[in-house]
Amino acid sequence: MSNRIRHFRKLRNLKLRELAERIGTTPQSVSRLETGHMTLSLDWLNRIADALDVHPTDLIDAPPQDRGVTPLLGHVGATGQVEDGPLGDIELVFPAVQPVAVRLLHPIAGYRAGEVLVADRKGGDPGRAAGRDALVELADGSRRLVRVVPGAGPRGGYLFVSLDYSQVFSASEVRSIAPVVMSVRYL
Questions:
Q1: Residue 86, CA distances (Å) to 72, 83, 92 in order
Q2: Rounded to whole angstroms, what are the CA distances from 152 to 99, 126, 140, 166?
Q3: Region 140-157 average pLDDT
Q4: R_g (Cα) of the chain, nearest Å
Q5: CATH superfamily of this structure's domain 99-184
């Protein structure tokens, strides 16, 4: 069966060894799974999907028209010149298992008004969101876009700082965390 394990492994900048460690196997087994020389069972799919933070069905190869595949024409240099090369296609997918999104009404912290931020509810562990922007739901049900600051809270816990620095929330005030994994800027 054709699969997209290598695609997602490379997107995450993982070496064979690193993915193998995450799923409790050898780099050789990961290589065989990637190339189809080893049967890709549901157990393997689930373990690999969890390690790569994708949905298991994302690992199954689908025809290009069923994915957001677009031809990559080249790289743009400092002068604006498009340089050709063996580039192939680029796939435009949300790098999230449980994606949620917000649209910004005003510019904030380097983001532009109108930009869409995509976050992943599955990545809700503060440790995985440390040092990153995240959408959080507070105990009162409101939601905020914050920066997750590790080691700044009581007993070395986490603090959640609004991107305009006007508010700080403690971990006890936060019900859920969804790290931002993608920004989409429409022109």
A1: 9, 10, 19
A2: 28, 12, 23, 16
A3: 79
A4: 19
A5: Umud Fragment, subunit A (2.10.109.10)
